[in-house]
Amino acid sequence: MRGDTTVNGQPISGASVKGRRRRGGVKLQALAAGALLLVLTACGGGETATGGGAGGQGPAAQGGGKQENAASQAVVTVLPKDGADSVATSGALKVTAEQGKLTTVTVADSKGAQVEGKIAADGSSWSPTAHLAAATQYKVHAIAKDADGRESAKDTTFTTLVPKNTFIGQYTPEDGSTVGVGMPVSINFTRGITDPEAVEKAIKVTAVPAVQIEGHWFGNDRLDFRPKDYWAAGTKVTVQLNLDGVEGRPGVYGKQKKTISFTIGRRQVSTVDASAHTMKVERDGKIIKTIPISAGAPSTTTYNGQMVISEKYQVTRMNGATVGFGGEYDIKDVPHAMRLSNSGTFVHGNYWGSPGIFGTTNTSHGCVGLQDARGAGDSSMPAAWFYDRSLIGDVVIVKNSKDKQIQPDNGLNGWNMDWSEWIA
């Protein structure tokens, strides 16, 4: 028949076929549309059919979703401002973050030396823990993160002031030296210090083996460091002078940045008994020699107390006029002289006195005299023996003299101050 056809071998009328084709076509179109919607949904980030209304006004399009490429909300601020010069060496540098937390802050000079600093516990700020050097350019690099972990960075440069007035610290002992167990670190400043806390903070003294070391100011121009007791033999001591840029007094800045080190030698402590007229030399816990001496005469007695050898002279001149004794003596060739005080106390050789005074009579103007030969050329003499076996920094203790105890700042003699007073 015209218009007839078959489906699976069965004849179907033309009218029926047309109706089924229409229905079948609708189903195929619907399936195709559904598949297209599914593809569009998958590519659109998982929006539901109800979420993607006309005009593409779903959550992402409306700004309600997370924007992966958005800028960090954290704001980093650096003071001083980029390019600033004549910046103060203390109190001017600070890094802060708003709407975020600092994660990295580095400040370094043109040689790459970094400034120590600390980020606050809440991440809101960073401050240096030490002063800056004067006349130095610094570069700042800071990074902060916002609540979504996005980073914001800032890089700036500034230069510190050039001081018109400066000071240095003149120190003892010398770098690389080996000294006795009583040797303090003593620093004399060329200008009086009115901010001792800032200056002391810029000086670090450490030892191996480790021991507590504290500083003490004598007046406003001298700072000494020592442990509670004499150093242990063999100790290695390091002194870091980071004074460059420290404002020691208004408008006066340190200009020193130096590290020195020294070693403590064997332990030698000698005890002078002014009444018995003897000096016992103790080395590493053992008495190695007892030397007859002549201490200060009754009218010019020797100080009592612990004294440290601060200088050694093979031969030196001693003039009474320089220490308040007028023209009572002027000896141009005193042999084997070792200074114990700034006021003129020495332990030294004596060739002009009778040999009989040593061990029996006190005759000096306050010094401790040992028998010696003129010219310091006889090594067999007691003064030569003691000189050859002494180091700067060795301790000489005087007792049983009819005089007062020496003042702690008269020479390197801070051991005459109780530890509680030293650290006060």
From TrEMBL:
Residues 1-13 have a biased composition (Polar residues). The active site is at H348, C367. Pathway: Cell wall biogenesis; peptidoglycan biosynthesis; Glycan biosynthesis. SUPFAM superfamilies: L,D-transpeptidase catalytic domain-like. One of its GO terms (molecular function) is peptidoglycan L,D-transpeptidase activity. Residues 268-399 form the L,D-TPase catalytic domain. InterPro entries: Big_10, LD-transpeptidase, LD_TPept_cat_dom, Transpep_catalytic_dom. Residues 1-23 are annotated as: Disordered. One of its GO terms (cellular component) is extracellular region. GO terms for biological process: cell wall organization; peptidoglycan-protein cross-linking; regulation of cell shape. Pfam families: Big_10, YkuD. Keywords: Acyltransferase, Cell membrane, Cell shape, Cell wall biogenesis/degradation, Lipoprotein, Membrane, Palmitate, Peptidoglycan synthesis, Signal, Transferase. PROSITE patterns: LD_TPASE. This is Lipoprotein. It comes from Streptomyces vietnamensis. The lineage of its organism: Bacteria, Bacillati, Actinomycetota, Actinomycetes, Kitasatosporales.
